Amino acid sequence: MTKTRILLADDHQFITEGLKSLLEPQFEVIGIVEDGKTLVEKAETLNPDVIVVDISMPLLNGIEAVRQIKKKNIPAKIIFLTMHPDVTYATRALEAGALGFVIKHSAPAELIIAIEKTLLGEIYVTPTIAEELATSPHSRKSPLRKLTPRQREVLQLLAEGKQAKEVAEILYLSPRTVEFHKYRVMEELGVKSSAELVQFAIKHGIITI
Fold this sequence. Notes:
By secondary structure, the protein is an alpha/beta fold. It folds into two domains: 131 residues, Rossmann fold (3-Layer(aba) Sandwich), CATH 3.40.50.2300; 61 residues, Orthogonal Bundle (Arc Repressor Mutant, subunit A), CATH 1.10.10.10. 51% of the residues lie in helices and 13% in strands. A six-stranded parallel β-sheet has the order 2-1-3-4-5-6, with helices on both faces. Helix 7 packs across helix 9, helix 7 packs across helix 10 and helix 8 crosses helix 9. The longest helix is centred in the C-terminal third of the chain and has 15 residues. It is globular, with a radius of gyration of 17 Å.
């Protein structure tokens, strides 16, 4: 019987190594990546059955990476494994196309259950968060919805401390275009400085400190 092929995405090596030990030999871990951009590339080339991904990752956070993966019509089932025990993140993850949302401090067996459920096309959310989703699924709308995918990419890279020229090189844009996106992002989010932009990114799980 062919094993389910899993791609892991987390920027902490000790976590991915632990996950690999947990999941094998029941499943086949076909790759480990440490940033969102590489995740999108590997999802396309490796064609995994399941992707287990963190929210907070460099260059492109997990939610934005999953949005790009779904736009490419890659059929992998997506499970977020995150430290954020918050219904807002779960809502964003499911909206992006994920079928699973598991908290890192949950029992290891919960991730395996989530994998098995998503392979059947079912949604699995950590029970405590699932209860909150059921009672108030639209209680907190993310202000990130106001932004375009490109604006969210620019926001993350700027919040990581990159200069406009560096962002331009990564995204294949001109520095002037990056500055325009930055201006629009700050206007949409109602922030007045680069420091406030970073604080917003930390608060909403786009980057971690």
